[in-house]
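ok new one. same drill as before - structure tokens go in, u give me an amino acid for every spot. 415 of them this time. try not to just spam alanines like last time pls lmao
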């Protein structure tokens, strides 16, 4: 299998353009099922998760072509409402298809989704939301079947602001009869992007980005064209890469307001941040430790917990990282320890004692964001590191080694 070979201790410098967001693209691709015709999505990243979603849509009957970063999706021939188990298991985001298929065809059958093993992510919130809208759910033999003669608007209250459940409920409700209100909705920017796409299709949604979303059901939706928002997690990873290598880089094509929790924390750790309309520049020298707690947006994102933990391993002093979203999201700690990091995990808390430098080692990416974290650690480490199981990294970071090479990193992909 392929691996990344990194020679560390190189300061990253230069400008890097951020591509479209994976976490916005996947639900929007699913949402194209709500209408019949050709929709065009721009700035779609080349990622294995995107390809997996494409495979599912094609199996359902869609015709999909790519032209650079544009993806053209023709849903005119979609007629199936069942997704095979082997495709559902490829990625967690396949659960997004329940809402659109139920909304369009009033029936859907899926198996339980797969994805990174970062802790239990039950889909009970998704199921409860669909039941509120009038769906009858049957769970048996590892499959979930949902059926509804007519979806009707409802009041939906989430016990936890789940991003996926919020988006699934939105997609199911747009074609429901009457008005739906989602309370304690997740507030992540990707939900705003989904709202914008659905409204371009003819939906009537308002409130995305707040904890209350109102959806007035419509009878029909139409194909449209849309530019995917920039990937704030990718942007945050590159900002941390600039900091951990004591570099000077500018991250471009972003929405800085969505990264305030990250840039504020990097400034607390000693980095210098300069923000413009659509870019952030980071310069860093010696860094100091600090405390970080992951929270739903607008708090510090759980998807950047692993990357910033790598940074804290070489920051001066002691740091504490508390993970509140996923309970198994410290799998990268054992790999960082191989590189000389001093980290102790107690439940959902990691205590990090900074070391002057880490050393290269052979490590394996246990999941997507942990893989990104190991690449960052290798960039700062003395000597050569080999990172195995890079297929995890390819799920969410488009051409990561090429983008890092453009900033001066000594990193190659090898078999």
């Amino acid at each position: 299998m392929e691996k990344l070979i990194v020679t560390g201790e190189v300061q990253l410098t230069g400008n890097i353009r951020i591509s479209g967001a994976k976490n916005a693209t996947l639900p929007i691709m699913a949402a194209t099922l709500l209408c019949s015709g050709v929709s065009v999505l721009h700035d779609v990243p080349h990622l294995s998760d995107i390809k997996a979603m494409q495979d599912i849509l094609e199996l359902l009957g869609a015709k999909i072509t790519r032209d650079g970063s544009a993806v053209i999706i023709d849903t005119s021939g979609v007629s199936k409402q069942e997704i095979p188990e082997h495709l559902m298991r490829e990625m967690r985001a396949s659960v997004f298809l329940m809402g659109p298929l139920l909304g369009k065809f009033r029936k859907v059958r899926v198996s339980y989704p797969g994805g990174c093993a970062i802790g239990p992510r039950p889909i009970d919130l998704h199921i409860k939301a669909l039941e509120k809208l009038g769906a009858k759910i049957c769970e048996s033999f590892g499959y979930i079947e949902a059926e509804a003669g007519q979806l009707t608007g409802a009041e939906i209250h989430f016990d936890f602001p789940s991003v996926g459940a919020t988006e699934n409920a939105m997609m199911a409700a747009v074609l429901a009869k009457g008005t739906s209100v989602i309370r304690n909705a997740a507030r992540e920017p990707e939900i705003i992007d989904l709202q914008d796409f659905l409204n371009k299709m003819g939906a009537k949604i308002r409130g995305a980005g707040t904890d209350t979303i109102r959806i007035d059901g419509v009878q029909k939706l139409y194909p449209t064209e849309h530019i995917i928002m920039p990937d704030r997690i990718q942007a945050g990873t590159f900002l941390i890469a600039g900091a951990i290598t004591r570099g000077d880089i500018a991250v471009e094509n972003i929405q800085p307001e969505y990264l305030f929790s990250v840039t504020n924390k990097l400034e607390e750790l000693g980095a210098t941040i300069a923000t413009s309309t659509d870019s952030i520049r980071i310069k860093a020298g010696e860094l100091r430790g600090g405390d970080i707690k992951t929270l739903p947006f607008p708090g510090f994102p759980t998807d950047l917990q692993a990357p910033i933990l790598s940074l804290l391993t070489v920051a001066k002093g002691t740091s504490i990282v508390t993970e509140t979203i996923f309970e198994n999201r410290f799998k990268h700690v054992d790999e960082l320890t191989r590189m000389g990091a001093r980290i102790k995990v107690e439940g959902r808390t990691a205590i990090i004692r900074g070391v002057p430098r880490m050393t290269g080692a052979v490590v394996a990416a246990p999941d997507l964001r942990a893989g990104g974290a190991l690449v960052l650690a290798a960039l700062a480490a003395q000597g050569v590191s080999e990172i195995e199981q890079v297929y995890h990294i390819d799920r969410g970071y488009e051409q990561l080694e090429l983008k890092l090479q453009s900033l001066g990193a000594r990193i190659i992909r090898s078999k």
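The chain is about 30% helix and 25% strand. and btw Residues 120 and 369 are 16 Å apart (CA to CA).
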